[in-house]
Write a structure and sequence with these properties.
mainly alpha; two-stranded antiparallel sheet; 2 strands; 65% helix; globular
């Protein structure tokens, strides 16, 4: 299996480049909606739909969109698919739509989607861009599902409406509070780092930043200057 194979593009987002647990993107919905496992799945699948569709369209139009307006163009494309999934969920899944609330509309500015559009879809063929969006979406959905399951089971003593006898009588409500979300997220990040056998980067600056691939040259230069001044 070569690094640039289709299989790699599909699976890299699950562990190796997981958007939440490795590059630390999309933290707002990750922490906000994962009090229930069903909410995590709903948000993850909605985001996956937008990722795949926006990557597809942006890859198709990458040679047509002028560089000067590429980011506004990407946002308009993403917003169109977010509006579509918002209408579909409101019509067919009203309860879930109500639970996700504002965070469903905020998929438009989710940095995972804009990051993949800028870093991958705008530079690669259509099929690979679709696989990239699907893989990142799967990784995002799995993270939200795991977090939602842990927080729901420990915090409410139930899972998808099924009562867990002992835990239902002694729920640890801190897990459905913001502090519990941060704690569970930290544990999952530690597990993924262990699975990847990945040590925290010793380098400072862009070399040690997992999100550096999404920064422009001007942003990288500005960061380096700030670090030089601090030293």
């Amino acid at each position: 299996m070569t690094e640039h194979s289709n299989w790699y593009e599909l699976t890299k987002g699950i562990i190796k480049e997981n958007p939440n647990l490795v590059t630390l993107l999309g933290m707002c919905p990750t922490l906000a909606v994962t009090t229930l496992a069903s909410n995590g799945i709903g948000m993850g699948l909605a985001t996956t739909f937008v990722l795949v569709c926006s990557n597809l369209v942006i890859s198709l139009l990458k040679n047509v969109i002028p560089k000067a307006v590429r980011l506004p163009s990407y946002i308009v494309i993403i917003a169109g698919f977010v509006t579509l999934i918002d209408f579909l969920m409101k019509g067919y899944l009203p309860a879930l739509h109500k639970e996700l609330g504002l965070f469903l509309s905020l998929i438009t500015v989710n940095c995972i989607i804009l990051g993949r559009a800028e870093a991958f879809a705008s530079k690669n063929p259509v099929f690979k861009s679709v696989l990239d969006g699907l893989g990142m979406g799967i990784g995002f959905t799995l993270t939200l599902f795991c977090m939602g399951s842990i927080r729901e089971i420990l915090g409410t003593g139930s899972w998808f409406g099924l009562t867990i006898p002992w835990l239902s009588k002694h729920p640890m409500t801190i897990f459905i509070m913001p502090a519990g979300g941060f704690f569970v997220l930290g544990i999952l990040i530690a597990i993924v780092c262990k699975l990847k056998d990945r040590k925290p980067p010793a380098e400072i600056g862009c070399a040690g930043c997992p999100s550096a691939q999404f920064c422009s040259d001007e942003e990288k230069l500005s960061c380096e200057r700030k670090e030089a001044d601090a030293l």
